Amino acid sequence: MEQDKPARDCDLDGMKQGVLGKPLSRSEGLAKVTGTAPYAAEYHVDNCLEGVLVTAPFTRGTITGIDKDACLAMDGVVAVIDDSRMTARPAQGTADEAPVQQPQQVCYWGQPIALVVAETFEQARDAAKHLKITFEADELDEIPLDPQEAETENNQSTRQGDLAQAMNDASHSVDGRITTAGHASAAMEPHAAIAQWDGSTLTVHASLQMLNYNISELADSLDMEEENIRLVSRYVGGGFGSKLGISEETVAASIAAIALERPVRVVMSRQQVFQCIMRRSETTQRLRLATDDKGDLTGFGHQALVSNLPGEEFAEPVLQSSDFLYAGENRVLELDVARIHQMTAGSVRAPGEAVGMPALEVAMDMLAQESGVDPVELRLRNIPESHPVEGTPYSSRKLAECLKQGAEAFGWEAGPRKPRHTRDGEWWIGTGMASAARVHNISEAKARVTLKPDGTAMVETDMTDIGTGTYTILGQIAAEMLGLPREKVLVELGDTQFPRGSGSGGSWGASSVGSAVYVACTGLRKTLGERAGVSEDELRLKDGKLADGTSVTDLLNGGDLSEEGHYEPGDIDDDFVAAGYGAYFAQVRVNRFTGETRVERMTGAFGFGRVLNEKTARSQCQGGMVWSIGAALTEALHFDPRDGHLVNCDLAEYHVPVNRDVPDLEVIMVEERDPAASPIQAKGIGELGMCGGAAAIANAIFDASGARVMDFPMTPDRVLAAMPAS
Ligand code: MOS
Predict the structure, then answer these.
(1) Ligand 1: which atom is nearest the Cα of residue 348?
(2) Ligand 1 centre and the CA of 242: distance in Å?
């Protein structure tokens, strides 16, 4: 089906099984925690060779030679692959285009350039270390590495009215420069692939988010037909954007397996994952906000500078939610990309809002301070009636409810902030809040659902579950629609032999492929109704039986009953602004002598349409809030300014929050249905949890200590430097 109008009546609401929305545990959870769920590198494959990637030890230039002979003479070494297809992968989002990175041309320090293949991993690693490469590298002073000094290209520009005039005429205004650091996805499972070639079909077990798209990328890279490729990603140990596109280990393992006619496994080292998989761009943002004397926005300016390699299409979409979140007639939104030679910038959890929303929400806090308006009230006052430029209506939007319910649950003390109101020994204590917003994405998806004579049902799609709960929620949707206990529904994912799903990315997975399962089940219900002589509206299915006691299996005539559901986003996309919303409230303590910040408690209230599983949804929100803590306080990629190489490329030096950094996180899920968002009235949720949360912590640091830090992450040195003298 194509969605052209809001799905006001959703069949899910009339179902009798009562399993949808329930806080069921993840169906693959036991297999994962007991170590029996195989990840990409863990399949036992006979006769498998091991490959280790070699990366460029220079920033920009040309490889002139690789001394393969010396390497091949080493113990166990079978091949040195420097095939031009290896590095010439399509960049993110450009699978249809020619590859951006040219073979033998190196454009960032650490770029993969060769694969050494040996009988054992140790032999391959040793040989890779000793591989001699000659190259002609450009002088470092000729290579742009600093976004502030590099050439820029404009990526997005919206102008309406006269912002400068609005700033001039404003009763209250803020003009601030905020920076955010680059981030790594830091998924637990490193990028890995095992490729097998049987002479006609290439089978690759890999760790990927988007099989439906990755198969096209791999076919392009290898100049092969898609029907000769099978990709399998049954379990993925986190993606967060880093596995949206295929990367070098998958392409290299495939080339090697075909060339050597033996299976080849390639696993990136943790350092390689950090150094050659997508980074989130650092950003420099200017926020200009102007209000009248009541605190109503009259001007809204958000400009950002991000960076990427020359020729790469992706630009961190910093302004994505600024576009529609708040009022302000006079507007400037501008995004520029600086061309620098650091590793490729791409999607990292909530691309855009993850860094744009914290900057905006710090500026809103400054405006609240400046105008003497309560921060929650300032947001409530500036929720626009319709899109501030296009005039488009919003689909369901629970921002106000989230702000109110979150404030209530947290115990928010309304009123302007008065920093340094509370001290406990050497710690200042304070609170802060911020809004959350994240665009709702949805994409085409297919899924097959089959009813079996043994009373079970099977859901099949090449959709992935990257730790989000996809196995579980797809099972719940099918169980609800078909009137089966959840355990009677088997869900098979992560194999391109199944119908093409939506892939996991941009938080679109649940609503996209969930809708495909819903469509398939609607088809099955139609057939069952016909066979039973009951109209669809009157078809009540529960625990495998119809209302009159007839067993569903009796209607199958001894065979399978199968239906493929196909969901496509329709024109409705242009008719509404669809997004998920929320609000965060945080309490922190800030050490007055060291500037150290501890998050003491945090509440998030979110509205994201229908809740498909209360437990997995809550877990997604909490995950986002953990990311918020990292973005606020510790996470930053550090590049050597001389050659652009990533310095902190492991989990010891790139500081994600650990258990001790995360307090109990309270999550409120505000009841909502969004008929314009998807046929199942659900929206994206995975990324929403981190779209602004870092600002609640930043604003709490200000309320606690009086330090208005303008640079994320707010490390102790920065907090201390911004702290006013006592
Ligand atoms: Mo997401 S950063 O689109 O996996």
Answers:
(1) 2
(2) 7
Predicted pLDDT of residue 84 = 80
CA of 568 to the centre of ligand 1 (A): 20
Instruction: For residue 351, give the ligand 1 atom closest to its CA.
Output: 2
What local confidence, expressed as pLDDT, does residue 100 receive? 53
| Domain boundary, last residue among 276, 309, 344 | 344
Per-residue model confidence (pLDDT) at position 86: 75
CATH number of 563's domain: 3.30.365.10
The reply to whether ligand 1 has any atom less than 6 angstroms from the CB of 351 is yes
Q: Whose CA is nearest to atom 4 of ligand 1?
A: 241
Q: What is the pLDDT of residue 525?
A: 98
Q: What is the mean pLDDT of residues 263-288?
A: 97
Asked whether the predicted pLDDT for residue 517 surpasses 60, the reply is yes
Residue 173: strand, helix, or coil: strand
Instruction: Give the pLDDT confidence score for residue 88 in this predicted structure.
Output: 54
Question: Does ligand 1 come within 6 angstroms of the Cβ of 508?
Answer: no
Question: Do residues 42 and 69 share a domain?
Answer: yes
What pLDDT, on a 0 to 100 scale, did the predictor assign at position 542? 98
Cα 622 from Cα 602, distance rounded (Å): 10
CA–CA–CA angle 386, 388, 389 (5° rounding):
115
Catalytic residue among 249, 334, 672, 687: 687
- The predicted structure's pLDDT at residue 462: 98
Please state, rounded to an integer, the average pLDDT across all residues of the chain. 95
Q: What single string gives the DSSP state of each residue in 582-596?
A: EEEEEEEEEETTT--
Q: Could you tell me if the CB of 241 is within 6 A of ligand 1?
A: yes
Residues 6+ apart with CB under 8 A from 314: 91, 92, 93, 308, 344, 345, 346, 347
Residue 370 sits in the same domain as residue 519: no
Is any atom of ligand 1 closer than 6 Å to the C-beta of 349?
yes
Count of domains forming the chain: 3
Query: Is 22 in the same domain as 137?
Result: no
Domain that holds residue 403: 349-439+575-722
Q: Is 687 a catalytic residue?
A: yes
Q: Does position 95 have pLDDT exceeding 70, yes or no?
A: no
- How far apart CA 664 and CA 662 sit, in angstroms, is 7
How far is the C-alpha of 412 from the C-alpha of 601, rounded, in Å? 12
Which neighbouring-strand residues pair with 197? 202
Closest approach atom of ligand 1 to CA 506: 3
- Counting residues of the chain whose pLDDT is more than 70, the rounded percentage is 98
183 and 246 fall within a common domain: yes
Interval between CA 340 and ligand 1 midpoint (Å): 23
Could you tell me if the CB of 509 is within 6 A of ligand 1? Answer: no
Q: Are residues 377 and 488 in the same domain?
A: no
Query: Model confidence at 91, in pLDDT bands (50, 70, 90)?
Result: very low
Domain limit, last residue, from 539, 568, 597: 568
Is 527 among the domain residues?
A: yes
Shared domain for 254 and 366, answered yes or no, is no
Kindly report the pTM of this predicted structure: 0.97
Q: Where are the beta strands (DSSP E) in 181-222?
A: 192-197, 202-206
